[in-house]
Amino acid sequence: MKNEKGTSKKFVFLIVSICVFCLIFLIISCVIFFNREDEVKKEKKDGGSVTLSYTDDINIFSLTNATPLIESVGKTLDSADMYFDFTVDAELDEAKQIDYEIYVEKYGNTPTIKDEDIRFYLEKQNSGTFEEVLKPVAFTGLKEKSELGTPRGAMVIYSDSVKNDKKENYRLRMWLADTAIVSEAVPANYSVKVSIVGKAK
Q: Measured between alpha carbons, how far is 4 from 182 in angstroms, rounded to an integer?
């Protein structure tokens, strides 16, 4: 009988010891788990790029001694000095998308044409044919810098988002509106710089 009681006490002690050990282990595991530092995974991406190239020597588009034109004529000006051709080349590396803005800003000396008398008209080439993407508009500068980075005072003439590498051709025309009042004593001149800004996401 004594033997059985001793064995029984040892067994109970063993069970209690195991339970206490498990409880201590559980407490220590919880403390370690809840006090561990968060793991931060950093990934550096080479987002991509968007560039603007042009057929002229510089990215300046100018009107000199302009005469007023009706809209239908301005939209079809076809001599080399009456339009500005350029290409936008977007290359995505690890980015999923590139947002970009094409803009114009006044360039050089003070123009002799009022902003409301100038007309800008933009086309984009699609399957070999140029199609309108900006109807004829007067120059209206931004009141503040855009989110993508077009500077204050410049005017965005086109914006787009691309999700694949692509090259797109554009043709910009600029003329003096037929409502403009001109003077023979003051030549009608106006120059803009054509630029682009973009951001990879």
A: 122
- Cα–Cα distance measured from residue 199 to residue 201, given in angstroms and rounded to the nearest whole number: 7
Which helix (H) or strand (E) is 22 found in, with range? Answer: helix 2-35
pTM above 0.85, yes or no: no
| CB-CB contact of 132 with 107 (8 Å) | no
- Amino acid letter, 3: N
Mean pLDDT confidence for 155-164:
96
- 3-state SS class at 39: coil
The 3 state secondary structure assigned to 161-187 is EECCCEEEEEEEEEEEECCCCCECCEC
Residue in the block written with tokens 């977007």: 90
What is the average pLDDT score of the chain? 84
Angle, alpha carbons 70-156-60 (nearest 5°): 70
